Amino acid sequence: MRLTVNGLAQEREPRPGQCLRTYLREAGWFGVKKGCDAGDCGACTVHLDGEPVHSCLIPAYRAEGRSVTTIEGLAGPCRPEETEPTSFHPMQAAFLAAQGFQCGFCTPGMIMTAAALNQGQRQDLGTALKGNLCRCTGYHAIRDAIAGAGHAVAAGSDLHPVGQNVAAPAAPLVVSGRARFTLDGPPTDALHLKVLRSPHAHARVVAIGDAAARAVPGVVAVLTHADAPPGRFSTGRHQDPRDDAADTRVLDPILRFVGQRVAAVVAETEAAAEAGCRALRVTYEVRPALLDPDRALADDAPWVHDPRDRPGEDARPHGLHPNLAAEVHGEVGDVEAAFAAADFVYTDTFHSQRVQHAALETHGCLGWRAEDGRLTLRTSTQVPFLTRDALCDLFGLERDAVRVLCGRVGGGFGGKQEMLTEDLVTLAVLRTGRPVRWELTRQEQFTATTTRHPMRVAVKIGARRDGTLTAISLDVLSDTGAYGNHAGGVIHHGCNEVLAAYACPNKRVDGYAVYTHTLPSGAFRGYGLSQTIFALESALDEVARGLGIDPFALRRINAVKPGDAMVSNSLEPHDVVFGSYGLDQCLTLVEDALRADPGPEPEPGWLSGTGMAMAMIDTIPPRGHHADARVSLDADGHYTVRVGTAEFGNGTSTVHRQIAASALNVAPERVRVAGADTDAVGHDTGAYGSTGTVVAGLATLRAAEALATGIRARAADMSGTAPETCRLTGETVVTANGSLRLAALGPLDAPGRADGTPRSVSFNVQGFRVAVHPVSGEVRILRSVHAADAGRVINPMQCRGQVEGGVAQAIGAALYEDVRIDATGQVVTQAFRDYHIPACADVPDTEVLFAETHDSVGPLGAKSMSESPFNPVAAALGNAIRDATGIRLTATPFAADRIYRAVAAGRGGGQEWT
């Protein structure tokens, strides 16, 4: 087949049935991304004879005789082996100037679509970009880029880098399609792995007939539970492995949810591996399934983890119900007496649904034996070091015999704090001795990974007439699904800061995380707090209404303040401190912004209302979080920062560059960042809990400061002056006797280390004004304002993008995202067209305002701000809908049909005057 790709004549036959996307990627054009397999996400967009198309929907043979342009060739002819851009198309330059990306996985497709828009289409970006999805940015920065609004400071600027809009180090590679993600450029001889998955919610594998599968041409190996190591682990990764239940095997004969791995086939091609899976013959013993978390602790409920399936093991602590994965209980004060003495009591029950992370890059892993024999894994993960350690424990390998590294990771949101592919790829590499790759399909991402924990939260609040809270009680039921990864962490975290944010003297919590025969839950942005905050902040809105007090005023009366003890449900000592306090500013910023500009008036027939909610979050996970960094002076006078933190749109590579540049007194462009590699540094717990800045960034700061001291000492030795007289300035060290070029000093390096204690707190306040159509149930957001206490904001452009993205993702979770499971336990939302994540038309611009604080815990006064913006959004939106309609919605998502039925039924709240 003859065609032209990026100005170059090509001659290569496509495989039967091959799509254009795969054809182009096999030719080395890795800017063409795989995100959905169905034409839903737009990550694979290319120009075919000048017109943008989704290349996953175009049969490759239809490109014969035609011209194809990928993101790499948008600015002009190029070859696939070119690793650096030589020029930029105006749209690529616009995305550079506005930093219209975060993880960058969607960016090539987004730019290809945007570059083809005419002036008329640019006036309606909601329609023009409906075929391109972004999970990170919230689309504000993308709209800015297309409009030509620039935010990034120019390269070589002499501005102090901290507090400036420094561009991401990889920005030129991202916008040119040359940034390499996990499976961009794998070895051509890699075998392909595919998995046969359980059709039953609960079953035992009696037998697996694999003769026909092994006979499929190209099949190299079939792996079953008989081949897997016997050890159990948790897919959830924490610094202390004991934080998560060790209840999972690589391949298990007991199947606990529809979609669980039954067996794996490793073959020369994907097609052969898929054919091998279809040829497997499995005999199942189907067992009763538990799909309802409310029944989990009943005496007659089926057991998800039956101790009888693990003879000789103490499968559960003595006395606990087998379906109880974790629990939390506590009380301070006398809650019942406080309710009895209250002037007003409100009680209701709130439900939060399953939500998929929907990162555009699915989980994927490539494993091989390096030349020195070491097992090497290139994987899409937020926790490379913890993944390495888990694999070593599971397969009996030494730490120095295994290397785990990342390319650029295409979104995480907590979903890649799980070890979901690396264990099976490791088994396949060890068994075959050959490189093996495994890339989950979008369907597998929906049906076989993890979700946000669905929760039922019963809340009861008592208050006096002046608005002072007398008592708060929470009863929480969390559905962890088939496995206990993050079950304990989520229930404890979700029941902690939600209460500690208020200085109420009487508090009680009873929380239960239960197993069911459903898709496992896991870590998700906010880590349990968004669900409990939705309940408490909704209930507080009803308290404010019942007492006739402004909702902002009610928070000011009761919110915890410096000097108050931060207490959730126990008076035990803890390590959380007020490193700084900006909640008062956040409340005022949102209140003033909504008052000054409430947004446009709704159309006739629509109801309008305003709502707000607040949230507090601990900035670092408990029970240990550690990071090493190393900063070196290279022979060319530049610096290299080596860290273990993965870059998946969280912006840590940019922040580390700015922190190091500040300590070394150089422009950020003189600092390189290398990381997400277990060979780079000693250890890094991982990029989760928003620790990439506050822990790993602190390690980088300490390493850079140590290197600066070392440079001054070396310069002093060479010049015969005192070290304190030496000053770093760009490429030189100025001494009392003149100056020395850095390159003349020779290579130097210095380590830095940070631990996650003590821990500070961040605050967020969200405000909305909405319009609701009472007949259709449609909700339109007229105004969105978010105030954040992020400490000293190291990169305002980037931090604002984190807030915008968090708010957008939370709007999706509040309004329409819903992982639905049918009566058999099967996930029925298996594609983006069935699962609505926010598109450009769905997301309003959110005005982001920052409190002015300086934290005593984080580096240079910074706090974390990656996940916390998500937490108050559902409550604030529900409160605005309540203000508009008079109806309290107690379950997310606030779908149009639910709103219509609630308005029609006139559902009221649960207030009670005493």
Mean pLDDT: 95
C-alpha geometry: globular
Query: How much helical structure, as a percent, in the residues?
Result: 25-40%
Query: What gap, in angstroms, lies between the N and C termini?
Result: 81 Å
**DSSP E strands, number:** 32
Strand content is 15-25%
Indicate the structural class.
alpha+beta
Stretches where pLDDT falls below 50 for ≥5 residues?
A: 909-914
Query: How is the biggest beta sheet arranged?
Result: 7 strands, mixed
Radius of gyration: 27 Å
What count of helical segments does DSSP give?
Answer: 24
Strand line-up in the sheet with most strands: 8-10-6-17-14-15-16
Description of the molecule:
Mean pLDDT is 95; it is low at 909-914. The N and C termini lie far apart (81 Å). The chain has 914 residues and is α+β, with helices and mostly antiparallel strands. Helix content is 26%, strand content 22%. The chain is globular. α11 (384-395) packs across α12 (422-432). The strands form seven sheets. The protein has a seven-stranded mixed beta sheet with strand order 8-10-6-17-14-15-16, with helices on both faces. Strands 12-20-19-18-13-32 form a six-stranded mixed beta sheet, with helices on both faces.
Highlighted features:
6-stranded mixed β-sheet; 32 strands; 7-stranded mixed β-sheet; disordered C terminus; alpha+beta; 914 residues; globular; single chain; 26% helix
Helix and strand topology:
Layout: E1 2-5, E2 8-11, H1 20-26, E3 45-48, E4 51-54, E5 67-69, H2 90-98, H3 107-115, H4 119-122, H5 125-128, H6 140-147, H7 171-175, E6 191-197, E7 203-209, H8 211-214, E8 219-223, E9 254-255, E10 261-267, H9 270-279, E11 281-286, E12 324-332, H10 335-341, E13 344-352, E14 364-369, E15 375-379, H11 384-395, E16 402-405, H12 422-432, E17 436-439, H13 442-448, E18 455-463, E19 469-481, H14 487-494, H15 497-500, E20 507-515, H16 529-547, H17 551-558, H18 583-596, E21 607-618, E22 626-633, E23 639-643, H19 652-664, E24 671-674, H20 691-694, H21 696-719, E25 727-729, E26 732-735, E27 738-741, E28 748-755, E29 761-772, E30 779-789, H22 796-815, E31 847-850, H23 873-885, H24 896-905, E32 911-913
Parallel strand pairs: 1-5, 6-17, 15-16, 19-20, 23-24, 30-31
Antiparallel strand pairs: 1-2, 3-4, 3-5, 6-10, 7-9, 7-11, 8-10, 12-20, 13-18, 13-32, 14-15, 14-17, 18-19, 21-29, 22-23, 22-28, 25-26, 26-27, 29-30
